[in-house]
Every structure is written in structure tokens, then in C-alpha cells.
Amino acid sequence: MPDQKYTISRQSLEAGTIQQLVRDRDGENADILSEEELKISRRRLIPDDNTDDVWLFGYGSLIWNPVVEVKAQVLGRIYGYHRRFCLKTRIGRGTPENPGLVLGLARGGSCMGVALCIDGAIAVRELDLLWKREMLNASYLPKHVSVHCGDRHIHAITFVMNEESPSYVPGIPLDEKARIITNARGFIGTSREYLELTCESLEKIGIRDRYLKELCALIEGGTKTGTPE
């Protein structure tokens, strides 16, 4: 278990704190993207000379800790993906010996979340900061999606699961997920804290996610042998 808890903030992202912790721990086996790889990935969606406002779609920690500067936000739904604990983490909220779980967007269904607007004048700078956070080891794929906000459709960027990543773990039974989330801790805290903060932030904006509530109930009541999700 890590001796010190670090936070995901502008300062820690700019300093590359989490990346350095992984390098110190894993040495040559550190599975993280370089600064140049991160920029190449961002440029595939947003070029360096962009001056337009950029929208993001947040479905998990971007709702309660966006880090980037946001000038507007609105509730919305995307189709073709749903929110699931399907990403195994050995870094932020787990360790190689005891991996944790965090959220990803898995294919199928739909997902309610928040569209976040970044001013065009600072969009490239803010996205480079965001890429350091979301694309640490390419477990996600950055993607353009259409966010349905009532009669309005917003073109936004979000981060969906990279199904080729070894960290993608579909089909884990819900009671096993609850056990993992209960016991995992990494550099930036516990998987349970991540789940609880996500549930709280969704409820505050009027989104009730039955899947997350079932996980919380299993954890609060103690895990039992159960059925797959």
C-alpha cells in the first residue's frame, strides 16, 4: 500500500508527478506514454492551431474533478456506450499486486453525463493537460461523440475503453467488482472513494445510475456470491 496519497490536480499533472511515480516504481517496465506520444494522440482530434471552443463529455471523475478550465456545462446523453467499471488500474487506484477498478465507456446502450466546454483560446493547452491525465498508458481511446442535450446536439470529445488494452476487463461478476473496489488502493486513493465520489456527483446533478448504486449496496452490505452483471 502506498505510504503517501497524491492528488490529480493541475500542479501534479503539469509536474508529471504520477508518471514519475510509475517510473520510479516500474523502471524500464513503466507502461506510460511519452510527452510526444500524448501530443500526437491529441492532434488526431484537435490540431495545434485550433481556436474553436472544445466540448468534453464527462461520465466519471471529470464530473467531480475536471482539472481543466471549464466555461460552461450541460447535462447530456451519448448513445452507443455505457458507463462500466471495466478498466483495471495498477497506477492511480490500485497496485500491480492488487489492481483496482475505474470507469470506462464500454460499447452498447447509452450514458448520461455532463458536456463541459473549454474556451477556444486555451483549448489546446487544456487538452494537453487532460491527455496527461486520461491517456497515461493508452487504456482509453479519445473519440468524438454526439451529446444529446434536449433539442441540442453537442460535438464533444470523450474517452472510451480501448478493447485492445490488457487493462480492459469486461464481464467480471458484480460481486467480484465490489470486492476489488473495496480492497484496492493506489497512488491517488482507493477505488471505493472513486466510486462514492462518482455516485455523489451524479446524484447532485440529478443522474441516478442503477449500476453504480448496486455496486455501492454490495460494498456497504458486504459482498456475497452473486451473478455476473
Strand content: 25-35%
Structural class: alpha+beta
Mean pLDDT: 92
CATH level-4 homologous superfamily: Gamma-glutamyl cyclotransferase-like
The fold-level CATH name is Hypothetical upf0131 protein ytfp
Radius of gyration: 17 Å
Order of helices and strands: HHHEHEEHEEHEEHH
Task: Compute the number of strand runs.
Answer: 7
Structural features:
Hypothetical upf0131 protein ytfp, 5-stranded mixed beta sheet, 229 residues, alpha+beta, disordered C terminus, two-stranded antiparallel ribbon, 8 helices
What's this model, at a glance?
With 229 residues, this protein is α+β, with helices and mostly antiparallel strands. The chain has helices spanning 10-15, 17-26, 35-43, 61-64, 123-134, 174-183, 191-204, 210-221; strands at residues 54-58, 72-89, 100-118, 140-149, 152-161, 185-186, 189-190.
